[in-house]
Amino acid sequence: MTIDTFVTENKQKDREILSEYNLDLELFNMMGLEIIDIVPVRNIFRITTQKGMFSLKRVIYDEEEMNFIMSVIEHLKRNGFENVMDYMAKDDGSLFYEYDGEKYYLTRWVDGRELDYQNPIDLKSATHLLSKFHKASQGFDMSMVPDSRNLLGKWPQNFKDRILEMNEMKFRALLKKGRADFDRIYLEYVDMCLGDAHEALEILINSPYEELVSKAKEDNGFIHHDYAHHNLIQSFDGKLYVLDFDYCAVDIRIHDVGSLIIRNMKKTGWDIDKALYIIECYDRESPISNDELKVLIPFFLFPQDFWQISRQYYIEKKDWGDRDYLDKMNTKSQYTISRREFIEEFQKRI
């Protein structure tokens, strides 16, 4: 993925989210805030007020999930993980403001910089912090976990469901009259991606995946599930903060590690040395087992990006321009080849 494509894709997502905010003066009156300035920053608003600077975020999940996320953050703090933001409670102790059918919350704004995963020092810091996050997550009260947030043991079925969708989308593309460039590229790569998906499922079923799930059930931990560079802020006094728990879930910890590796591979031409560097950094803080390394192989092999952009086009029908869709498909279809070469080298070196 080129940097331009990566940035454009994330900006589109942020614009979609920000468009749902209702920044009415009445909302801020409810909060007891006099607004001096409002600036969009990714998918939140930084607001400057008479009481200081805050991050304003719209809640995108239901009440059960809200309670889960709040419980996750409190659990981390109780276990000594202080690298999270404090939510600004109302006078009655509640955290959320309801306005015009939507819920919002405030956190104190921290001046600092986003981490840069291209910087090896930042990447090392982020990876060490992730291992500490996973340690602090252990012992969580699983009665607080909504079914939608429990991914333990669900990888095989998720793979199967996505394979079915890929076949369905292939059928749609074949039947389509007046195919666009997107359709032609999709049909060029879909059989190769389906082959990878089936192989990933077979490897997963024959891997130590179930043993890892059993261990995770004993540990009772959770994962961040969106450990992107922009969700890690280093304040000007040097402290690291993990932001945005919107996608937090219960799953095996190697899911987070694998996602961190893939995020970096997309920007570095699938550099095997960088992938091994991430594993080494994490392993120093919390040893990674051979079973976990084996489960990374089907995780890497499944064509997640190809499935996702295809789904956005054929099923979700997101309101993006043809050029945007085409750029993304061109980039993500190329992962099929790069990913294969990467996995072959990865298997040799682990």
From TrEMBL:
InterPro entries: Aminoglycoside_PTrfase (IPR002575), CotS-like (IPR047175), Kinase-like_dom_sf (IPR011009), Spore_coat_CotS (IPR014255)
Pfam families, per database record: APH
Flavoprotein found in the keyword field: no
GO CC list: endospore-forming forespore
Domain of life: Bacteria
Keywords: Capsid protein, Virion
Domain Aminoglycoside phosphotransferase: 43-261
Name by which UniProt lists this protein: Spore coat protein, CotS family
